[in-house]
Each structure stands twice: as structure tokens, then as C-alpha cells.
Write a structure and sequence with these properties.
Blueprint lengths: L1 H9 L1 H15 L9 H20 L7 H23 L6 H4 L8 H27 L11 H25 L3 H15 L12 E3 L2 E3 L1 H11 L1 H13 L7 H25 L3 H4 L1
Antiparallel strand pairs: 1-2
Helix pairs in contact: 2-6, 3-4, 3-6, 4-6, 4-7, 4-8, 4-10, 6-7, 7-11, 9-10, 10-11
Length: 270
């Protein structure tokens, strides 16, 4: 794990160059160009706000802003995982070159989406001002939260990118899993709306079920933390984030081990 991070730092110039090329290529020949960085999440927010805020009337105050606080970090994660899963298998042109560092490929996908996320944050602040919701000192938690989510995303992406080289069906499976994860994660809904669970002989109070969701779904803990900072203006709950940090550490170790073990096969399999 440490070795992979050291190698990423060693190839940081290449990592940055690939990310910048991807950002430029993403909107090449587009009339609006870079503006799509803001328009894509805004249009997604508008659709979900219309369906769940108007047609289905969630009852959540300032629902568009509430939704955007969770939607932006979710887009960062999902775009990174979906793009990162195929980042190695789709780059035969680079992997067949002599001594090309394969570990840069998943990392530059994550970095590209991280830059998009950071560039979209002013839009979140602007939407907050529209709803007369002003930033507070709790923004100091943004950097550690961003670091934690980035490392968690990087761990997942490394593992999936290595496995997808030999098992190409994985990329299609992940696309469906991500759709399921979107609805199981509190992006469109609030943890506080969870009610008592009484099924299959198991009974959980609303508070117990909320804790189960927070401590078993790292994304739930991260989305709740982002909303705490931007929407509720309070410090995020520490315990769920410590669990996420522990899971992230284990996933980084596992993904680094799998990636290293399979790296020699990449050029042959792609």
C-alpha cells in the first residue's frame, strides 16, 4: 500500500498530465465546453428535485439544496468507480509501452473526478445563498472529509480495475451495483426518515436501524457527514467516519496487494 502511494507521488507529473488531458478531451468540440462541469450535476439535481421534491413531495425543507449536498459527493464517487473499473482494461495503447506505470491509470480517473468535484463546490455555495443558507466555520471539515472519500474511492477503484482486466463482465455488474447503491445510500432520502424494521423475526428501532446503515455502509456515513457540514452546519459524527477510515485502510492494503499481484499480466490480457 505504502509503495503504491510512493509510486503515485513519484509519477505525479504524469498523473497530472493525464488528468488535464482527460478534462480537456471530455468537452472537446462541445459548444458549452467547461460549463458542463456545472451543468451536469445541476441538471441531475433539477430532475431529482422535481420528482422527489415536487411530484412525490418529500417534505424536506430546502430540498434542492439538501439534495445537492449529497449528490455532488455521490457523483464524484460513482463517476470514479465506473470510469476507474475500465481504466486499465481500456488502455492497451499505454500498457504495451515499456515500463509504463499501470498504477497511474485508476488514480488519474479519481483525480479527474476529484477536480470536477472541487470545481463544482462554488455551485453548491451559490445554491445555498439562493436558499439563504450561509456557510459556517464547519467548512474546516471539508478537507479531511475530501481526503477520506478520495482514499476510499481510490481503494475501490484500484481493486476493481485490476479484477476487470481478466473478468470483463465485472464492469457491467458494477454499473448495476452502483445503481442499487445509489438508492441504498442516503442521497435522495434522509437517515432520520428511516422507521422501525420488523421483518423476518428481526426487530430494530429507528435509531438502531440508522446506526446499522451508518456503520455498514461507508457511503452512508460519508453522505451524512457532507450534509452535516453544508446543510446542518454541525460537526460530522466521529464514530462512523472512524469506521470508514478503518475500512479504507484495509481496502487500500487489499487493493494494493491484488493490483501488484496481477500487474505483470495486464499487458498480455488487455
Amino acid at each position: 500500500m505504502v509503495r503504491n502511494l510512493q509510486e503515485l507521488y513519484q509519477y505525479r507529473a504524469l498523473l497530472w498530465a493525464l488528468s488535464m488531458r482527460e478534462l480537456r478531451a471530455r468537452y472537446r468540440a462541445s459548444v458549452l465546453g467547461f460549463l458542463w462541469t456545472f451543468l451536469n450535476p445541476t441538471l441531475s439535481m433539477a430532475v431529482y428535485a422535481l420528482v422527489f421534491g415536487v411530484l412525490m413531495a418529500s417534505g424536506q425543507p430546502r430540498f434542492p439544496y439538501y439534495l445537492f449536498c449529497g449528490l455532488l459527493p455521490w457523483i464524484f464517487f460513482s463517476s470514479s468507480v465506473l470510469g476507474g473499473t475500465t481504466s486499465v482494461s481500456d488502455r492497451k495503447d499505454l500498457l504495451t509501452k515499456v515500463r509504463f506505470p499501470a498504477q497511474v491509470l485508476p488514480a488519474y480517473v479519481v483525480l479527474t473526478n476529484l477536480i470536477n468535484f472541487v470545481l463544482s463546490l462554488p455551485l453548491l455555495f451559490l445554491l445555498g445563498l439562493v436558499f439563504e443558507d450561509y456557510p459556517s466555520w464547519h467548512l474546516v471539515y471539508v478537507v479531511p472529509l475530501l481526503l477520506l472519500q478520495t482514499m476510499f474511492t481510490l481503494a475501490i477503484t484500484y481493486l476493481l480495475s485490476a479484477l476487470n482486466v481478466a473478468f470483463r463482465d465485472l464492469q457491467h455488474i458494477i454499473a448495476n451495483v452502483m445503481q442499487l447503491a445509489f438508492f441504498l445510500t442516503p442521497v435522495l432520502w434522509d437517515l432520520q426518515t428511516v422507521k422501525q424494521f420488523d421483518r423476518l423475526g428481526l426487530t430494530l428501532t429507528a435509531a438502531e436501524l440508522q446506526r446499522v446503515i451508518l456503520f455498514t455502509n461507508p457511503l452512508a456515513a460519508l453522505m451524512a457527514a457532507w450534509r452535516d457540514v453544508f446543510f446542518h452546519h454541525r460537526a460530522p459524527a466521529v464514530e462512523p467516519l472512524l469506521v470508514v477510515a478503518g475500512i479504507t485502510t484495509m481496502m487500500l492494503w487489499l487493493s494494493a496487494a491484488v493490483f501488484e499481484r496481477r500487474r505483470e499480466e495486464f499487458a498480455e490480457l488487455v
